[in-house]
Every structure is written in structure tokens, then in C-alpha cells.
């Protein structure tokens, strides 16, 4: 594995990727039609006013200079100022990120709680009635768009029982958990079917391998067989599946935060995009991309730790 | 103690393939004495692996087993058993591919220790010591160090030794070997064969050894069963079968192997392909490829007839066989 070992090597691979992401995000500003100065200064601004704004934003400099400055700022955590509120984008994101982290965290937790048992049972009872039921439910879940599931949950659960709020976020831990449950459940219903399907396939291929026959031949059976021979072999691919799904989950958050009026990043992105607030859009995009890269990196590292064939430590 | 250890009568393995029933193992009967080594030879697809898997109960879930299986676990004479009963009890198996047969996420010492933990009621420490003992028994050098290794860190030959140690960990009276040397280098093959020979005498263990390779079976086995298209077509002591085959298929198998007298340019193989289980020919299933086939062959019922003490054949015209080199 060389001098840096597995983790070091993966980290090194990520660095050029990050620069690529920043470049793409920077390009968004360059290729978007419309004049940022005009947007800030307003429709009735004079040519002189516009020039002043351009000068203050550095828009008169060469693209290369602008890119250099952008990278420098990003590295210092400066994502620019919102065209709309004139507040720093970083602080806008800071205000909203908590909601999305909650949504993703609880959503992922629910995905795992739903998918792992169902995927495992489905594989162990392949082609039996319970397997057909789980697969049928999965198909149903897959065919329901997230906003629709959200609306149904709001109408059927929140409005009829009154147990759950129909929108917004809270202050205390329990308020937050209370507010986030239905949105997170929506997210989980949308993503679990894919994870269940993937886990089932992975488990079945593990169950059909020769080493399972070896285990059974010496009398290892039941939960011991699953624990000692199946799970660790299926875990790596399972984690990769969840990580890929987590990437999609992030974009699902855009829809769900809007449905449930949650003041998170997804809602922020929708507002910024509608208002053509480019620095904010850039900020959100950068953050989403970073999150996806981080999730994949973490999943790779965990998978590697679980697989003795990868020498993580060296 | 003498007498039979295993009695298999009219074993059938049936699959439902897209609504059609196929029976790749179709009426296999065999007996095995304590400590005896039986070789099963036959072309690819003749049902050798499925027969072994039925005996130890490792068939895929979509298979149905028919027939009668009896095994004498610590008994005088064999009694009926359900295949899953023998998992960890008296019968174990080693496979062809030592890489895929070992759990990649389990240290080899832990794998070998599973049997003693489960069936001998040993604690962790004791089972680990037993595992190291077994590794020493199968000739693995520095077993204390190697017990901590993962399968991928071992060579093919060592992995197969780990597999053998795992199989021995349940103290079997019968060891099933499904082409255990085919995937190994030639020099390693000989070592593994030697090891199995030695273990067999040392532990007084019966062996069923499946192989394409008649020469290998000649080294290891007392008795031979030749399989063709899901059935056993000839049985007998190894030397006698080699000297004087009583079934045209056995003869054809032998002429296709260079070490049996034919020079390399005479290495003809057997003409034609083995039949597909979905479409076995009627009567004697070898008839379409048999040089001696007569008109009545395609109507012959399958029956292993005794031709000499300890020898049987399914061929209804054994007198026609010319023999080798005459
Ligand atoms: N799961 C299955 N479903 C349907 N048919 C099967 C299945 N497993 C095996 N068969 C069929 O059974 C036949 C015998 O298989 P088996 O593995 O016993 O052959 P074999 O004699 O061990 O051959 P080889 O020398 O290639 O290992 C094959 O023709 C195969 O097509
Ligand atoms: S029964 Fe007939 S066809 Fe079959 S092996 Fe004997 S001679 Fe050949
Ligand atoms: Mg086979």
C-alpha cells in the first residue's frame, strides 16, 4: 500500500478532487447569464454605479485572478456575501446547517433501522412469502416520490393525530427530534427500498458462497452463521450502498425541507436559486459537494477497515 | 469395528428449472465401510459434486433429495439421517477451491476453532489451542503465527491444509473430498494427496474422493465408482477396475488418460459430449457414445449387476469389451 497507507492515499486523491469542485462552482458564476453588478445595484443604477460595484467585487480583474481570489477566500471559510441579504454566505449556511444535519442524521438512522433487518430477512427467506411481501413494499416505496410521501404523512399522520408538527424546527433537543421525525421518515421511505434491495442481493451472494457451505458443514448455523460468516462479508458493500444513498439523500433534503417548511440548507438553496443569489447558490453547492466527498471517503475507509484484504494501517 | 459406515440407496437430486424437472443425480447407490476410501470418477456434469452435497446436506435450497441415506455415527450399523443432521457430526467435506472455501473475514485459527467450540464444548482458549494442534497435524509450519493470519495471506496449498484442518476439527468418521487438488500446482497436489493418505490411516477415517483424474484416485482409493449421467455405472476394487474394466465408459475414460498406456498422440478423449440432465437418452445413457452399443441397449433398465466378487457393472454386454492393449 505504499508509504502513506490506504487512508493517506485516499486523502491525497481527494485533494485534487476538491480543487476540481471549487473550480466547477466558480465557473457557475462565470457562465451564468446576467450581470451580477446590475443585480446588486438594482435596475435603475447608473453605469457609474455599476462600475463601482464591479470594481468592489473585483469583477474587472481577469478570470484567473478572480479564481485565485475565490480559492483563497474559500480556504479561509469566506464564501462571499449574499446579493440579497448582504450577509456573509458562510453565516447564512451556519444558521441553516443544523436542520439539515438533523434531517440527514435521523433519516440515515431510520434508513439503517428499516433496511438492515428487512434486507437480511428478505435474503435469509429468499422466495418465501415474507420475501415477497418485503419486495412488494419496496416497490411501493420506490414508486412514491418523496414530496408525495411527505404530503401523505402530513395529511394522514400529522393532521389527523396531532402528534407531530406539520412544519418548522424547534429549539430544544426534543423539540428538534419531534419536528424532524416525519421529514426524516419521508426521507427513509424514499431511500430504504434501494438499500433493502442492494443488501438482499449482497446477502444472497454471500449466502451462496463456498465459505458458507464450509461453515454449515462443520455445524455453524442460525444466528451464529449470520453473525460470524455473513454479516462482516456483506457489511462492506452494504456501507458503500448506504453512502451512495446518502449522497442522494442530500438532494432529497431539498424537496423534503420545502415540503415540511424546514429552514435547512435545501430550503436555503431553493430560495437562493429563485432569487438568483449566486454567491449563496455557490456556497450551498460547494458544501453539498464537500459533504458527498466526505461521505464517500468515510465509507471507503470503514469498508477498508472491515476488509482484512486491505491493509489499512500500513 | 467393521461393517458399513455409510449406505446410500437410490439417491435422487431433482431441480425445478423453469417449471421443468431435471434429475442430475438419478438413482445413485453406494456403500462404504469404516476406514475405506472410495473414489468417484466421471466427466464434468455427471453429478459427482451433487452426490457429495446430498450426503452432507449442502444442496442449494431449490433442490429436492430423494432416496435413503444411512450413517453409523458411533453405532454398529448405519441408521437413517436427514442430511443436515451430519453438519459437524461425523461427516465433513473439503472443496476444490481453497480460496473461496475459507471465510475471507475470519482468521484461519478462528475458523478451525469453530468446530471444537460448537461440538466439544471447548472454551475460547482451549479451542484455540486445539486449532493450533490441528494445524500442526495437517503440516502447517509455525501454526501459532499462522493461526492469526487471514486466508488471503496464505498460499493455495496452505489454504487447502487449513480447509482440511477445519474439516478434521469435528472429528469426522467420513471425509468427503470434492476434487481437493484440482486447483493446486502439481507439486502441491502430491503433498496434499500424501497428507490425506496419512491422515486417513492415522485417524482411521473413511474417504469419498471425487476426481476427474483416474491416476489420483488410483493412488488414494481402495474402491472405485464410475459415474455417468447421474448414475453409477461400474464399481470395484481400484486395481481390478483398472486392469479389466467392465463398462465401456470406464474403458473410454482410461484410454483418454495418458498415464493409462495410451501415448500422448493417442489421447483421444471420449467422443461426443456427456448428455445434458434435461435430456438424458433412454435406456443405457452411454449408448449414443458407446462403441459396443447393441440394439437392446436403448431399452435396458439401469441395474448394477454383479460380474465378479466385489465388482458390478450397469452394462448389459460386458463380454463385448475387448480390454486395453490387447
Ligand atoms: N443449482 C442447480 N440447478 C440446476 N441444475 C444444477 C444445479 N447444480 C447442478 N446442476 C446440474 O447438475 C449436473 C451435475 O452437477 P455436479 O456439480 O454434480 O457435476 P460434477 O459431476 O461435480 O461436475 P464437475 O466435474 O464439473 O464438478 C450439472 O449438469 C448441472 O447442470
Ligand atoms: S449397455 Fe450397451 S450401450 Fe450401454 S455401455 Fe453396455 S454396450 Fe454400451
Ligand atoms: Mg463437481
Topology:
The complex is a heterodimer of chains A (314) and B (326).
Chain A: H1 5-31, H2 36-41, H3 47-57, H4 63-75, H5 89-124, H6 129-142, H7 146-161, H8 173-207, H9 210-217, H10 222-259, H11 265-274, H12 278-306
Chain B: E1 4-17, E2 20-33, E3 37-41, H1 48-56, E4 63-71, E5 79-80, E6 91-94, H2 108-119, H3 124-137, H4 143-146, H5 156-168, E7 174-178, H6 186-203, E8 206-211, H7 214-220, E9 223-228, E10 231-237, H8 238-243, H9 248-255, E11 305-308, E12 311-313
Helix pairs in contact in B: 2-3, 2-5, 3-5
Bound molecules: adenosine-5'-triphosphate, iron/sulfur cluster and magnesium ion.
The site of adenosine-5'-triphosphate has 13 residues of chain B, from strand 1 and helix 1.
Descriptive labels:
heterodimer, A: 314 residues, mainly alpha, MetI-like fold, 12 helices, 77% helix, globular, B: 326 residues, alpha/beta, Rossmann fold, 2 domains, eight-stranded mixed β-sheet, four-stranded antiparallel β-sheet, 9 helices, 24% strand, binds adenosine-5'-triphosphate, binds iron/sulfur cluster, binds magnesium ion
Structural commentary:
The complex is a heterodimer of chains A (314) and B (326). Chain A is mainly α and 314 residues long. Chain A has a domain at 96-302: MetI-like fold (Orthogonal Bundle), CATH 1.10.3720. Chain A is built from twelve helices and no strands. With 326 residues, chain B is of the alpha/beta class. Chain B folds into two domains: 4-90 and 172-320, Rossmann fold (3-Layer(aba) Sandwich), CATH 3.40.50.300; 100-171, no CATH class. In chain B, strands 6-7-8-3-9-10-12-11 form an eight-stranded mixed sheet, sandwiched between helices. In chain B, helix 2 crosses helix 3 and helix 3 (124-137) crosses helix 5 (156-168). Chain B starts with a strand and ends in a 13-residue tail after the last strand. The model of chain B is unreliable at 261-267 (pLDDT under 50). Chain A binds chain B through residues 126, 208-211, 213-221, 228-229, 232-233, 306-309, and chain B through 56, 58, 60-61, 87-89, 92-93, 95, 97, 100-106, 111, 114-115, 118-119, 150, 152, 163, 166-167, 169-170. The structure holds adenosine-5'-triphosphate, iron/sulfur cluster and magnesium ion.
